[in-house]
Amino acid sequence: MQIFTQLLFSGIALGMIYAVIAFGYQLTFATSDTLNFGQGDALMLGALVGLTLVNLGVNYWLMIPLVCLFGAAQGAFVERIGVRPAIKIKSEFGWIMSTIALGIIFKNVAENVWGRDDLKFPSPLPESPMHFLGANVLPMEILVVVGAVLMMLAVEIFNRKSIYGKAVVATFNDRDAAKLMGINTGLVITFSYALSSTTAAFAGVLIAPLTLTGATMGAVLGLKAFAVAIIGGLTSGMGIIVGGIILGVAETTTGFYLSTGYKDVPGLVLLLIVLAVKPAGLFGKSAIKKV
Amino acid sequence: MKPSKWALAGLGVLALVLFPVATTNPYYIHLLETIMIYAIVLFGLDIVVGYTGQVSLGHAGLFGIGAYTAGVLVTKLGVPLLVALIAAIGVTALFGALLALPALRVTGPYLAMVTLAFGTIIQILINEMSFLTEGPMGIKLSKPPLLGHKLDEQEFFWLVVFVLIASLVFVHRVLRSHLGRAFEALRGSPVASDCMGVSVYRYKVYAFVISAGLAGLAGSLYAYSEQYISPNTYNFELTVLFLLAIIMGGRKTRTGALLGAAIIVMLPKLLDDIELFRIVAVTFAVLIAVGSGIQVARGKTTVVKTSIPVVGGIALAALSFVLTTMTDWRLSVFGVITLFVVYFLQDGIVGFVRTTFNIEGHASAEAEETRALTVGGAALQHPSGGTTPELLVASNVLMQFGGLKALNNVDLRVKRGSIHGLIGPNGSGKSTMMNVLTGIYVPTAGSIVFEDKSVVGRTPSDIALSGIARTFQNVQLFGEMTALQNVLVGLHHTFVSNLVDVALHTPRYKRDRDQSAARAHALLSIVGLSDLAGEEARNLPYGKQRLLEIARALALNPQLLLLDEPAAGLTAPDIKELVTIIQKIRAEGITIILIEHHMDVVMAICDTVTVLDFGQKIAEGTPAAVKSDPKVIEAYLGGDAASLSPA
Question: Taking the domains of chain A in order of start, what are their residue ranges?
C-alpha cells in the first residue's frame, strides 16, 4: 500500500506535466484546428535553454519567465514558418508535415548545440524527500503540480476575463465570423502558438530537475501528452487533468510492477483504444457533421 | 501503354539485372538493393498517403514487423525463404488491419498520431520482447537458400529485382482498377463515396492491409539484405523519411516512389561527402532556376511565387560551401527539404516535371482510349423491383440535434415512378430529410421503409447499394479524378472481380473494366458531358459539376434518385437542359425526389409536392394545389402576404 501511494504521488506529478503539454495542444487546436507535432521539442528546447541560463548563474525562479519568453518566440516562429502557409492553402497534410519537420530540425539543432548526452538539471528545491501519508514526496514534485495548475489557471483567466482572451474564444467559435468582426485571426493564431509553446517550455523547466535533460526528451513526452489530450478530449480543460493523472499513474505503476521498458505502452494503448471507441475523448463533445 | 514506354521500362529492367554483373563492388550492389526495398515500402505507403490521403507515421513500424517476422522465423524455426516472405506479408497485413481499426474512426492529425503511437509501441515491443526478438542485441541472419541453392550477393539482388517488379505490377494494376478508384474517392469526398456504395470503412481497411503487406514484404527482404536487424532502425526518423520520399518523388506515381526511394537512400551518403554535396546542391539550384524559368515563361506561375524556392536552392548551395561537415546536420537538412517540398513541390518531382513539360496524366488518356467501347445494354437501366405502389414510406420521422427538431414527425410517401417535389424555405429540413433517407443521419425516432425494407440504422453505403442514389446541395465530386472516373466510382458495384483478378488481369476483370468504361461514357453522354470525360472534375464549370453528380448517381442503377437543389446556380438554358434530363430519367422508370428552390421547375415537372417549414410538413398535394395553399404562401412570404394575396 505504501508503495502504491508512492507510485500514485509520482504518477500525479508526471500526469500534471502531461496535462500542461496537452493544454498546449488544446490552445492551438482551439484557434486554428491545428496541432504542433513538435510540441515535445518545444518542451525540450525550453528545458535546455533553462539549463544554459541556470549554468550561466541565473537564478531558477528568474530563469522561468525568460524561458517562457523564449517559448513564446519559438511558438510564433513555428506558426509563421510551418502553420500559416498550410492554413492559407488549406492543406492538412501541409501543417502536419511541416510541424514534424520543424520538430526534427529543433531536435537536431539541440543535439548539435547541447550534445547527444542527457544532462543533469540542478534542482532549485531540496532533494531530500518529505514524508506524507507514509510515502516519500519530493518538494519538486509538489512544485510541478502547483506550477502546472497555476499555469493553466492563468491562461484560463486570461481567456475569460481579458478582451484579448475574448478574441481567442471568438476565433475558436467561428474563425470567419471573428475575422468579419475585425479580429485579426491570423494574429490570434500566432498568439495561440506562442502561448502553447510557452506552456510547453514552462513544463520543460518544471520537469527537468526530476528527470534528465537532453535532445531526445521531447518526442515521447509530446506523444503521450497527445494521448492525454485525446483521452480528455481536445476541448475539455477538466478532461486533460483527469486524463493526465490516469496516464501518469498508469505509467508509474506499469514501470514498477512490469518493467520500466514497458512504461510508455499503457498510455499509447489507451490512446488507440479511446480513438477506436470514442474519438471525441472521454470529456469531449462529438461534432455533428454537415453535408 | 505506348510502345515507347514499354521499351523504356524494358531497358530499365535490363539495366537493373545487368547491374551486379557490371560492377562487382558489393557496396553499390547493396545500395541499389536498399533503394529497391524502400521502393516496395513506398509503393504501399503511396496507397495510404497518395490515394486515400491519410498521413501514416506507422510504416517504419510495419516495415520492422516484416523484418522481425522473417528474422524470428528463420532463426527460431529455420523456415525457408519463400515461407518467410509470405509469413512476413501475412503477419504485417494483420497488423495493418489492427492499425486500421482505430484509424477507421479518425482522420487527419488524429490518424497521424495514432499511427505514430502504433509505431512507437512496435519499437518498444521489439526492444522488450527479448525472448522472441533478442531485444537490443538484434538478430543475425545469412543470405537464404532458394530451391536448395544458397543465394550469393548477386543472386539475392536478382531476387529483389524480381520482387520489386512483381510488386510494381501488382500495385500499378490495383491502383488503376476499381479498387484504386475507391481509394482515391475516399480522399476526394468520404460522404460521396459512402453514398455511391463504396464503403469508406471497408476500403480504408483494404488500403491499410495492402499497404502493410507490402511494407512487410519489403521488411523481410531488408532483413536478408542487411543480414542483421536491430530495433533502432525502425524509428520515427525512418517513418518521416518514407513520407518525405513519397511527397518528394511525387504522390500517385510509381516513378515518384522509385525516385523518392533513391533520394532517401542516397542523400545520407551524399551528406557524408561534402565535396559531392556541393556539386549536387549547385546542380539542384540550377535545375530549380531553369525549371521555374520555364514555368514562368509558359505563364503557369508568377515570378514572386517561384522566387522563394529559387532563392532557397541558391542559399542551400551557398551553405554547402560554408560548412565543413554535414553529417551532424543530416536531420536538419531532411527537415528543411521536407518544409521545402511541402510548400513548393506539392506534386513532387514527377508532378513538377509533368507541369513543366505539359505531360498529360494517364487518367485523361484513359478517357480517350475507352471512348470507342460500346455498351452491352442500355446506359440507364430500368429498375427492376417490387410492385407496391409506394416505393418509399417514411412515417413520423423525428430528427433531433440537441434541442432543435430539424424534422418533427414528418410523413413522406413517394409513389413509384413519380417525381416528388420537396420544397420549403431555407432551414425547413429538406436537406436533413435527404441525409436521413440516405443514412448519413440516423433519425431519433420514426420509420423509413424502402422497397419493404427498413432503412433506419443501415450504413449509407448499404442503403446506396439497395437502390437510393443522391446528389448533394454543395457539390461533392471527387475533385482530382476525371469526369469519367467519377462516374466509374458510381459503377463500382458492377465489378465482380476480386484482388486476384485485378492483379492477374483475368478475363473476368477485363470484361468488368471494359463494360463499366463503356457504361460510364454512355452515362456521360446522357447528361451531355461526353466531350469532357477526360477533364478533372474540379476543373469543370459549376453547372457541369452538378450534371456530373447526376450521371454519377445514375451509375448506381438506382430505383430512387434524390436530387438536392440540382438547379441552384445554373443559368436559364442550363436549367432547361436539366429539366429534359430529369424527364428522361423518369421515363426510364426511376423515381425521383427533387429538392428545389426554382418554383417554375418544381411546378413544371413534379407529380406531387411536399412542403416543409420548421421541420414540419405543412402541405402536400399536386403542384397547383400546393401553390394556392395559404399556409405555403405564409411560410414563403410571411403572414401579411398571405392575407393580401387572394391565392
Answer: 2-218
